[in-house]
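Progress narrative, work stream C.
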Amino acid sequence: MRVFNFSAGPAALPLPVLEQARDELLDWQGGMSVMEISHRSKGFIAVAEQAEADLRELLAIPAGYKVLFMQGGATGQFSAVPLNLSRPDARADYIHTGHWSARAIKEARRFLTVEMAADEAASNYSTVPEQASLKLTHGAAFVHYTPNETIGGVEFPYIPATGDVPLVADMSSTILSRPLDVSRFGLIYAGAQKNIGPSGITVVIVRDDLLGRARPDTPSVFDYRAFAEAGSMLNTPPTFGWYFAGLVLRWLKRQGGLAAMAELNRAKAAALYAAIDVSAFYSNPVAHNCRSWMNVPFMLAKPELDKTFLAEAAADGLAHLAGHRSVGGMRASIYNAMPMAGVAALVAFMREFERRHG
């Protein structure tokens, strides 16, 4: 029996895509597994080109941007961004809103001077800063932010305005969940394991004028221009992950694209938050104006029941609801592949659990 998988990542994948990958695992276009094909073959190059074309179509990526399929996860980009976009004596603005922005800041400090454009420590990272409160540095190499903090469940309701300074975003937990104005960004990066596909691929969308700025000591596998010139095949790519990402992108198009996904994701989040807010037994710590659509943390009024909640939820086919070890409680990640039926099942379970234990 398949369960409803609320994991933050690697996360749930669309069942039709899993079924297609299963069918092609042993025989993809003539007697070979899709995992055995050469990345230099005409067949795989067609897969790679189609995946990029579909991503460009879904996100309406303007001309003048390169799409790269890299490795190393978002964590690798914490280093790649300053190595490609700044000199050692440069300053860059970072907006600190939680765990993953903190990780990006810590890594960036190895390569440049980090200026804190905002730090939401006063709210225990349950808010995002207002645009007017951002302290942007004149002459900064770039401004970095995390639109959706996977662990804390905090999400920006706006795109920061940074003037002529390139805006860089770690969109691992929000990419493809709704339409996006890519032209507002200098660079977007995202690990695949939330809304794109299995872990192993990292998508980077970078404006052309930001290529060719890498420091001389930048490893070639992190050099955006070198990767772009090689068609994202500077070395052997994770071919299965790239193929699978392409299947997910085609699935998204069949669902009606990102406008349709936004409508569904908004409805899923609203249903879950409504169940939490109406209850005295459950609570969500995030300010209402910056609650994530993708990652919904919640606490029980009786923390001693956390293990019971998780065990009974798992028995009901509701998997991976434990909050991150750094914060505890619960977390439901409801990415694109989570159907409304999964959210409805979780809400019904929560109500019954409260009835019995509240």
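Work stream C, second folded protein:
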Amino acid sequence: MKKCLIILCLIIPGIAFSQDIKLTRTILDTLTSKTMWGRGYTNNGLGKAADYISAQFKAYGLSPMDGKTFKQDFSFPVNTFPGSMELKINGKSLIAGKDFIVKPESMGGKASGKLEQKDSSTFISSTDQVVITLKDKLTWSVSTKLTDHTEIQVIKSAITTPENFDINIENSFIPEFKAENICGLVKGTAHPDSIVVFTAHYDHLGGMGSTTYFPGANDNASGVSFLLSMAKYYAANPAPYTMAFICFAGEEAGLIGSKYFTENPLVDLSKIRFLINIDMVGTGETGITVVNATVYPKEFTLLNQINDANNYLAKIKSRGKAPNSDHYFFSEKGVPAFFIYTTGGIAAYHNIYDLPGTLPFTKYDDLFKLFIDFNSKLMK
């Protein structure tokens, strides 16, 4: 009987983690689905993602951070492309996302005519305020501004030298797009006024036209999946200190959601012992990089000690301060914070090829264990 119990204790952790991987894949597939439409600014993609994450928080047993609702409302301007997205170059129809992208600040419209070559990669129609540029690769983004012209980037392999064009591009500039940060917590059992925070942005680029959307699997459905796994774990296993979880909107538009939170905090920022921001953690073959490692050497040393003792990751790389994700405005307010991302594996970024099937989650198990251990020792 004793032998059976020992064997059972050895296999249960493996079973528990396989459930986490299954949960991760389910969340990833949901967040990158056509229904979520790139978690952006058309087809209510961002709103659907916010509802889904809020429902997960509730199902796990988290409490709203303000005691009322998981959602923190705010708004910001954004340029969107809800409808027509048509381009012909030299009479050839091109495919949005694959062959071309429209610069996110473009005004859109209907136009056709001849193109004048300005240099080896730039072609313009000054009368129609259209600019065509040739690129080796295509990456999209989000704009909170609107220009007075339309710029289109075309992959070089799709066409020969552009001589004439035909466009039909619909844009809609929204001065006050409504968005929400999703905020929940698990109150600490012994020291509820000391807080460890996990953050991840759930927004992505949304859709470009009515048929093309950007799934955003690694960026950052992977981070949200990791955060939700952490939230579920701590809801079932409350820590002595409070564990808080925030999914930000507006990161791709300029860290807008996290900036809003730091200016309108739902918890006392001075009570945050540490914040861990997770963005793009779907790989890990070569380890992780830690932004702010040089700013917080004591915590970085602790992270490495845990990793060295358990051989979780191949390497933990140090990086200095950088305003490249949602940790930044917390750091500026004096909150100690790391920004973590995995390295190695796929290179898809801000394009239509950032798909859930491409993510190996090579080190998800070990990354999960690393931060469970890190959190347990952080308060000692």
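DSSP finds seven helices and 18 strands in the chain. No further action is required on this item.
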